[in-house]
Amino acid sequence: MPRSGQDARPTRPGSAHDGPGLVVTAPLAGTVVALEEVPDPVFSQEFVGPGLAIEPGADAAGVSTVVAPVSGTIGSLFPHAFALETAEGRTVLVHLGIDTVRLGGEGFQLHVEAGDRVEVGATLITWEPARVAALGLSTVCPVIALQGDPGLLASLVPPGTQVSAGEPVLTWS
């Protein structure tokens, strides 16, 4: 939840400004999960940074669309994960499922390339969470303020909340 004294009403998602800081939007539709509930200590113990996770929903065809949670440049890009670098020097990491690197890209379709400049809400990846779950892997998706100070991150939505792709979920001051 926003810390006392913070304005949780973003004015421009995906960019830093004089308001609450960088607004990070949900990269996919689903249910918000507390980061400590993610079944991987790298994420649950915030080794790479603070954030939250989203248990994905899917459309009628079983596909989940992943969009840019902030405007920036695609840094690292894999079928199952990406890092998006903002003009302000912050990086947001999104990891689609846990241990999904083992799939070698199967079930994931990239719509961008490393180095591409994207605006918040741009389609980056489509994937099939049900296919990942059928293989016995977790589909929960950590959204991380890479190397961020936990004291500078505020959640705009509590765990258990249903969110749509593009909906503001975090501020990073």
UniProtKB/TrEMBL annotation:
It comes from the Bacteria. Residues 1-21 are annotated as: Disordered. InterPro entries: Dup_hybrid_motif, PTS_EIIA_1_perm, PTS_EIIA_component. Gene3D superfamilies: Glucose Permease (Domain IIA). Residues 40-147 form the PTS EIIA type-1 domain. It is found in: Cytoplasm. Its main location: cytoplasm. Keywords: Kinase, Phosphotransferase system, Sugar transport, Transferase, Transport. The keyword Transferase applies. NCBIfam families: PTBA (TIGR00830). This is PTS glucose transporter subunit IIA.
